[in-house]
Amino acid sequence: MNQQYPSTLLEKAVNEFSKLPGIGRKTAMRLVLHLLRQETSAVETFGNAMIVLKNEVKYCKVCHNISDTEVCRICANPLRDASTVCVVENIRDVMAVEGTQQFRGLYHVLGGVISPMDGVGPGDLQIESLIDRVARSGINEVILALSSTMEGDTTNFYIYRKLEKTGVKLTVIARGISIGDELEYTDEVTLGRSIVNRIPFNQ
Amino acid sequence: MNQQYPSTLLEKAVNEFSKLPGIGRKTAMRLVLHLLRQETSAVETFGNAMIVLKNEVKYCKVCHNISDTEVCRICANPLRDASTVCVVENIRDVMAVEGTQQFRGLYHVLGGVISPMDGVGPGDLQIESLIDRVARSGINEVILALSSTMEGDTTNFYIYRKLEKTGVKLTVIARGISIGDELEYTDEVTLGRSIVNRIPFNQ
Q1: Contact criterion met (CB below 8 Å) for A31 and B20
Q2: Which domains does chain A have, with CATH numbers?
Q3: What ipTM score was computed for the predicted complex, to two decimals?
């Protein structure tokens, strides 16, 4: 349906919103009309928040996480264990791991995974800087926490090949049955791995 | 889950997005990170589109639709039938009716419906200007195209009482079974009305 917009300014705003992932034209229209009902100052705050973020955001020199400063809050925190580094794909994964409150080490954000289909090679990721970091700092353990996909596994293997001679301890997060999942509905690869990688029962 | 954001600028942008209707914090994060991957110019275009719209948008003096000009494209179009006015709640309804390509008259955008529960009275809507418009211009027919809700019906009745003495022809859009709907699943009020308001069969 080719709708004629009553205003080209409205059409432009709707076009911009509908470029966002998962936002269709109808939703974009609803969001724009919602903002249009707000105070001018609120709309300016909204529009500028994104522009300021884009212009002023920094990436941590150490772990490449998003940061307001040269070195991010996590890397700068003396209470964190600097000898353990968790390798993740993106900053959402950092937030997911932080959300568990189970990890007190530092991170290394790759910025993606190796994916020849999408034209992403090792050179497009922060892998070289990880190797430098392991060579320079006193890192004892590197935890690979990438997605359990072909691309994640490929990246894991690439990093393993690069780090195997450094003597650093290399671990990978456990794959298995999700808490609350029923055995009969678990896919056989996951179930198989969870049996092979069984651990001693304690409580 | 109280997630610690790695950057306050990021947190601000996510906060702004999550104020939008139907956008939770996870979706907001996804949208912000998507925009962050775009070029600076694209992000500025996005942020400014909404600010420019808010600052420069006009409302048509005649029908109160959103417009780039004093009088909107529809009202200014000499090919449209100025003797028929379709009363709608908001500009999305204008676009919905325009989308059908079945109406060649003009519109009157009320800006809502009478809803005591939400504190919306007749004075908050463009009802007075509708009455003026009917009194001043050569309008033959006013079509009421409001939602089929209690509030819509109340507004219809209020407008009817205001216009009944002017002699203008007052019609309401047909209520009935949606095209493609099965009879047995139609609610009884709709089905009852569709029987009472049956029309001659032609083709």
Answers
A1: yes
A2: 8-56 (1.10.8.420), 79-172 (3.40.1360.10)
A3: 0.77
**What three-state secondary structure class fits A172?**
strand
Residues of chain A in contact with residue B20, where contact means CB-CB under 8 angstroms, are 31, 34-35
- Tell me which amino acid residue B189 is: V
**In whole angstroms, what is the distance from residue A130 CA to residue A151 CA?**
18
Q: Which helix (H) or strand (E) holds B86?
A: strand B81-88
- In chain B, whose CA is at the least distance from the CA of A64? B6
CB contact under 8 A, B50 and A46: yes
Matching residue, tokens 């050179």? A123
Say what the pTM is.
0.75
User: A52-57 long-range CB contacts below 8 Å, 24 or more apart?
Assistant: A52/B9, A52/B12, A52/B13, A53/B7, A53/B9, A53/B10, A53/B12, A53/B13, A53/B32, A53/B36, A54/B35, A54/B36, A54/B38, A54/B40, A54/B43, A54/B44, A55/B40, A56/B9, A57/B7, A57/B9, A57/B10, A57/B36
State the pLDDT confidence band at B6, using cuts at 50, 70 and 90.
confident
